Structures are given as structure tokens and as C-alpha cells.
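Write out the 3D structure for:
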Amino acid sequence: MATIWPLLLLFSVISTAEAQQPEQSFFRPGTLLTPRGTNSSWLSRSGLYAFGFYKLQGNGYAVGIFISGIPQKTLVWTANRDNPPLPDDVKLNFTSDGRLVLQTAQGMETGIAGNTEDQPTPFYQVRNSQPISPNQSTGIFRLIMQQDGWLAMYPVGTPFTLEYGYWGAGVSGEGTDVSLNFDADGRLYLLNGTGMSIVNITTGDPTKGVIYRLRIDPDGILRHYSHNMDQNGFWNVTWSGPKDECDPKGLCGINAFCDQDAGCECLPGFKRVNQDDWASGCERNFDSKSCKSNDAVTGYNMEAELHTVWQNDSYSILNSSTQDACGEACLGDCNCEVAQYKDGECRKQRLPLRFGRRQA
């Protein structure tokens, strides 16, 4: 795949089929917001959105934009998303020079917007499954619009090449002018440079009182949601991609693999680093021993994990008649920690392993 273009949709894309238009509210310099009480947020003109403090699950608060017109409060954007939770004595001040500044009781100040280097949260890097969660930090997957006209998804921190991409939509040969569009009726589609629709990702449904949103969930799946404002229900998934839940690369972290039947699993001899977050991967549950050239196999043995595939990062490739012979070749090499065997080929690798998944 070719070089990337920036994604056109930088914020959480939520559209409404019909919005109320109450009188516009204005907030003048000198006004304050506090986490507790009735003065914790400002409503948008439609009354559907709010900006201000919201309580995290657990301790603390954050500042962001959320949907306030439905019972299930749903986050749209978070300011300073990688910072720790805010205490309940913090204030958000709209200063006379047009800045939004967080002020703690100890006098510390943090900028939110205006004359600061704080940038809006990229909508396409969402890590948390809960609408309001204690962890809104930058996620591990991204959606980009590429220079070759394809919309594609990658793990964060990988090159934008076919080897690392795990989902895409587009038409070959369209070039650099393709754009991703999200209409008020929920339709998600690609337009080429002449304004022609070339890919319909979702169909439109111009239903009164329905709102839509698009996000990458923690499992790396891009999901299109709808919510009926006339019903006290939940967000319904109307489309998702990719369909295979093990396609997102890096979902289970290093030294772990995805199994459609069992979810994420660690390699034999490994345990999860963080029980609450598979993305943190797995680590050894045994003490490693020194490896001497004249006694390489002492204290170690090879365990097979069948029908799994991983990122190919081998430093040596051998011809091997059997799986056991491949394992012995790894045991005899102090640099070898993992051997991948398939069709007579033995690949020696070092840890960590990445992008593992079980194949049928």
C-alpha cells in the first residue's frame, strides 16, 4: 500500500437526522465549570451535546465532549487524554484572552484550548469499550486515508504497508483525491476526485430521531452505530469491519495470540502482564537461565503451539525434515528463543513475538 494521507475525519463522527434548534447559549470569558454540582458542563445549541467535566468509572474526572441527550452518556472527545484523572477540586476557566485552562487548588494550570499545543483527540484511536471509562488514553489501532485512494486500518506504530494492514476499502487506481464521507442519514462512503461515489461502506437510513456514530472499538474493529432518540435503548451496531475478530493485528499484545473460540491466549510458559488489558501482552512465568555454547539445552525444552501464525521476524532459516528437528536446532542456538516450523522450513526467532493468531 502507498504513502498515507491524513484521515479527513479527525473527530468522532456523529450525525443526526433531525436536531432541535433552541436558543443559542453564549459563554463569556470569566465563566467557570467545576466537576461537582449543576455547573459541570455547557450544552450545545441542539441540547444533544455537552462540553465539560464527566466522571470516570472509578476515581476522578476528565474534560471532554459527550452526548447528553440520551440516558447512556456517550463520549465523543477527551481533552489531554493521556493525562491522569482530574481531582474534584479542579476548575475549568474560560479566561479573558480566550483560553480554556484547568486550574487545581494548588495553582497548577493546564491548557485545554486556545494558545496551547493541545490537539483534539484523534477519533480513530479509541482504546476503551465503555462509553465513559477511566482509561481514555491513545489507542493501539488507527484508520487512515491513503494516497492510493484506499481507506485502511493498521496497528499503531507499524509501517503503512500491506504486511501490517488488516482491513481496507477502496478501488484501485483512484489516486490521491479520494475522501471518506459520513452523511446525516448514517451513510458512510468513499468519493473520488470528481465527486462520484465509488464505495458504499454502509447504506443511508433517513429515519427521524436517529443518531449515528463511527468508532474503532478496543478490539480493533471499526463499527457503525445507530441510536433511536425516541427510545431508551442502547447503541445498535449496524455495520462492522473486519468481520474476523482475530484480524486486528496486535489485539492480544506481544507473546500472545488470538483464538476465535477462546479469545486471547499466552504462549506456553507465559502469563498476562496486566489482567485487565490484553494489549499489554504476556511475559515469562519462569526465570530465564544463562545459555552457554557448550551446554545450550540445559534447563530448557520446546513446547509446541500448533496452528498459529506470527509476524515473520526470523534471523535464520533452515531446512528441517521434522518439527522435532527444528526444535532441536533452536535449543542448540543460544540466540534462538522461538522456532516456527512449516513445510520443511524452520525459522529461528527471538522474543517477543507479535501479531499471533490461531488458524484452523
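The radius of gyration is 25 Å.
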